[in-house]
Amino acid sequence: MTPSEGQVLFDGKDVTTLSPDKRNIAQVFQFPVIYDTMTVYDNLAFPLRNRGVDEARVDARVREIAEMLELEDRLTTRAANLTPDNKQKISMGRGLVRDDVNVIMFDEPLTVIDPELKWKLRSKLKELHQKIAVTMIYVTHDQTEALTFADQVVVMQEGEIVQIGTPVELFERPRHTFVGHFIGSPGMNILPCEVSDKTATFQGHRIELEGAITAASGRTEIGVRPEYVRLGEGGVPAVVRKAADIGRHTVVEAMVGDVTVSAIVDEAPPEQGTEVGIIFEPSQTRLYADGWIATEEARP
User: Fold this and answer.
1) Helix (H, G, I), strand (E, B), or coil: what is residue 228?
2) Domain residues for 277?
3) What's phi and psi for 232, nearest 5 deg?
4) Which of 111, 193, 268, 290 is 20 to 30 A removed from 43 (C-alpha atoms)?
């Protein structure tokens, strides 16, 4: 496939026109790609043998990867007899066993794994990444996986990149409302507002923002995470609709007119129907115009 524009560079080398086998890319798919009739050992050895690697090197590398993946005691077992998580370990091992790859691409590799085992495999993959120091591109719809693994996260919406940054940057300062909604649980409050004379108002109340408004055309909204919303006296009048205890803290939903605002509180939540004041932390409250951030970044 030829890109519509631009180049693909690995360490400065243009590989745009090279055939896939010349680019040295390993891929781990959503479902295990292994040979059930082969042993674990032969599955891991196959990518190396297929490239004519010396058998002594094959043996050393297979045993090294098997130890990393905690498969060393199953090397003589046929893959067909393994559990789904161990089959996926083999699939990951086949991508990791080559030491000449430029990048390893993971396409939602934990989708078929039992939820209880996902945490273990996530930790194992993070450990492997640190050990082998190879570039990994990991595609996932699970924000927990993205934030667990990544040094840099690329968030896409309908094929368009809306933000690239560290997990902290995506959480602390979403550049698009989709990022704010997608990253975090619960996601960012996205509240319709009016803008006049460089001032934002929500349900008739002036809202202090992180910095000056840079744009105000199109659909305007205020974005603030529930972590930076508190309940107290003053602020925007609201009525508590419900509270959900999620363990470490409680998520309170309050109604301002017909708009729901979520707040995360550590203390005992007010009862349903209680009138409260909603207060937004100014340094974490931003204006968005047609989805894109439209306030200047707050300075320390």
Assistant:
1) helix
2) 188-293
3) 180, -165
4) 111
Number of domains in the chain: 2
CATH value at residue 259: 2.40.50.140
Nearest to 149, CA basis, from 178, 117, 119, 114: 119
pLDDT at residue 1, as a whole number? 66
Select from 43, 94, 34 the least CA-distant residue to 68: 94
Task: Give the tens place of pLDDT for each residue, 228-264.
Answer: 999 988 889 999 999 988 777 899 999 999 999 999 9
Does 199 share its domain with 287?
A: yes
Pairing of strands 103-107, 286-289: unpaired
Compute the average pLDDT of residues 91-104.
Answer: 85
* Residue 181 host element (H or E): helix 177-182
**Torsion sign over Cα 116, 34, 99, 6:** negative
Q: Tell the burial category of 21 from Cβ atoms under 10 Å away from its Cβ (0-12, 13-18, 19+).
A: exposed
Strand partners, 139: 107
Tokens of 222: 């205020």
Question: What's the half-sphere exposure (Cβ side, CA atoms, 13 Å) at 163?
Answer: 23
Q: pLDDT digit string (tens) for 162-202?
A: 999 998 999 999 999 999 998 888 999 999 999 998 899 99
Per-residue model confidence as pLDDT tens digits over 46-55: 999 988 999 9
CB atoms within 10 A of CB 49: 12
* 65 in Cβ contact with 109 (< 8 Å): no
